[in-house]
Hints:
Strand content: 5-15%
Number of domains: 1
Number of helices: 12
Radius of gyration: 18 Å
Strand order of the largest sheet: 2-1-9-8-7-6-5-4-3
CATH class: Alpha Beta
Distance between the termini: 46 Å
CATH topology: TIM Barrel
CATH superfamily: Homocysteine-binding-like domain
Shape: globular
Amino acid sequence: MARYRNNLPQRSSNLFLTDGGLETTLIFLEGLDLPEFAAFDLLKHDAGYRSLQKYFRTYASIAKENQVGFILESATWRANPDWATKLGYSSTALAEMNRKAIALLHDIRQEYETERSPMPISGCIGPRGDGYIPANAMTVDEAAAYHRPQIEVFRDADADLVTAITMNYVEEAIGITLAAQAVGMPVVISFTVETDGKLPTGQSLQEAIDRVDAVTNNAPVYYGINCAHPNHFAGVLKAGEPWLERIRAIRANASTKSHAELNESETLDDGNPAELGSQYRQLRDKFPQFNILGGCCGTDDRHVAAICKACLPVLWTYLSSPLPF
């Protein structure tokens, strides 16, 4: 049975962490081969499964030690039919990989969750195409039909919610939202933006969120921003604007490079973890509803630990510190 599906704890004002850049960590720091950038492919063998266990345990430990919540996000960003076909997976085998990804997170939650560190499980949905380029865009109905089978697997595997990450055009986001609604799953939509703070289509973040809400009757539980550096989007976030209340999750890149520059880079730009933590703190000071914080490309446990340290409530930081005597 899904533990939090009907009462997601991250909807409170409490601080929640996510993991960092899963794929970039596994490729550049762990030296693993991820064909098509597909982390779910590791689930097909024991060594890969253990690598993912190690990865998620690292972040769950940070949350547990700091007594904050943690969103367990499945390693399924590429686990949809188009990418799976390139890797030789049948539809049956793909469904099994999605189930296995959620089962792994159930085990992690069993091992690390505490009363102060609730850990909802999210089934991660990635874009059908490239995460940076909205080519071969689908209609809303096409997107709903395309993504629904993966969402159904997550529902049946007892995930608490689904999160669509790196959405780069609004029709796919709406389709995913409607598909999740149809099968009774809470859904989160996270958009990516370019260096100008706009979606790759040129649409503003506000317009995209307003459009999804208008078509779906405010169905997403909340929204997020991911795969962009704070320097890219902070300027379009104006305090006091009502649409910003819909955003809760920030998963920024470590690098200030554009998507095009990152695509061409053969080395990892891991930025400055302490500086990134400070930028998150500045965002949270202006927008306290931003309570779900983690990383995307180039970030690892150092960045998430720095973000946590910077954004922990001052009073709790004091109370949890060793006594000076």
